[in-house]
Amino acid sequence: MSTVAQPATLGRRLRRWEGLPYALILPTVAYLGLFFAWPMVQAFELAFHVDGTWTVAPFRTMYHDVNFHQALTFTLLLVAVIVPIQFVLALGMALIVNAKIRGRGLFLAIFILPLAISDLAAGLVWQSILTERGYLNTVLEKIGLIDQEYIWLDPTKSNHLLVAVVVSELWRSTAFVMVIFLAGLQGIPHEYTEAAEVFGAGFFQRVRQVILPLLKPSIQVALLFRIIFAFEAFAVIIAITGRAKTTLATEAWRWQAESFDSHVAAAYSSLILILSLLFAGVVVWLLRTPREQMLR
Amino acid sequence: MRGWGLRFLHGVARRLPKALVYFVAIVLSFWVLAPLYVITLAAFSSGDDVYDYPKQLLPKDLSTGTIRFFLDFPGMTDAFWRSVIVAALTLALSLGIGTPAGYALARFAFRGADTVRLSVVATRAFPIVILSIPLAVIFIRWGIDDSVQGVAIAHTALALPFVVLTTASVFAGVPAELEEAAMTLGCSRASAFARVALPLALPGLAASAIFVFIISWNEVFAASLLTLQNRTLPAAVLSTLEGAPLNFRFAGGFFLLAPSVLVILIIRRYLFTMWGRVVR
Lengths: 296, 280
Hints:
The structure holds 2 protein chains of 2 kinds. By secondary structure, chain A is mainly alpha-helical. Chain A is 72% helix and 1% strand.
């Protein structure tokens, strides 16, 4: 392309300007620096810096708080129960939509419906089902399984509340994992699974020995995000259990919103950050691709 | 006769897996749909029905009583409009700032592009929870605590990485050759973008924008820490929950959920264009 004797108009100079991509990303980098990175640093300062001295006092207050152990164990339990069940459920949904069956478009449309529902809304939905005069008891009574209302959300029964929160979270957030799995599945050529079938591999064998290994990158991404999000469980806890159960996030919220102590609140949120990155990191590391396989 | 029977059995055995797949698919569909049906039913039952037991399982005696009770609840309509304003501000800010970055990542091979992409992805790994507390402290200092602007700023920080990654993936789906052709035919870089790339990317960008709206509409942790009087809808619902009557909870749940479900129905087709690159 000749550029002989063309006047260097603004447009033409812009076309050749090497700094253009940097100019385009600058606003994003500046905004994230100011409202993401800097507050993050401030959070750690809040947690470790009180009245002009460096200290671990906020963490000590947190540790000795009456709710701390309950909040920590309940949060860890939620992560440990939700993530594996969700994995199986999402994999099942993704395999159904990816199978060559009629109506798969309809099933996909149904499975992704909860994708954008908030945990607060989901909590309220499941409350309408599980509440004493709710829909689950109505159905169970109609088919004759119970003859008086069962109290599903009994605040004194820890396991009941755990199951209720787990069910609500599974219902709401499995769509997210399924979308990631499905995107991964669609990158696996049908020939692979067909070949395995020709050689006599059954359904579960195909899933375990062909699909899961090839799906590993998607599994890593999905688990990474789901573990991090599960550590942040907040509004669903308040919607379903009221004040009967707490998590690290509800505690962070209460210290900030009700006790006006940003230091302890920041200590709680630092703990959430550290734990979620630690757990997510371990899972991603466990699922790493060994070097000999990377040479393929 | 025996051969026919065997063939029949073989047919059943071959079809069984497919029947099983349909069975599981229908059970899972029921699991997703039933709660949606139930909350809609609860939200549109009359005020007295909400406490009725056993509950109606079929839509008889529909009424807007419960919805009206929710909207008449002190502060709820204001909170509703505040949520709309915050979401609109978030949308304008995050698309205005993030779309150029998405375009740059999709079109230019520049030094540091991978670092930018990776750090944007990495922001998603940091919990929203940790961001809100220092922002609450900073906003008091700046005098924008308890305001829609403050919440919109926080929501933009959450939505921006999403916008950058999804718009990058949308622009990557528009062939660069088309823009180059426009430029050889005399378009400037800017007009090639505005007249060729933008119209083609518009549906994807709209899908991304709608999703940003929902991110802001749903967000409750930051919103309830950054406001006190001027609550957004989820924050107002959350702070009213304790001791709230059942009809408030049901209608509240429905109100928070309805836009999210509608949005997914609308942008379903663009979900994978948006997410394709994000998840890999």
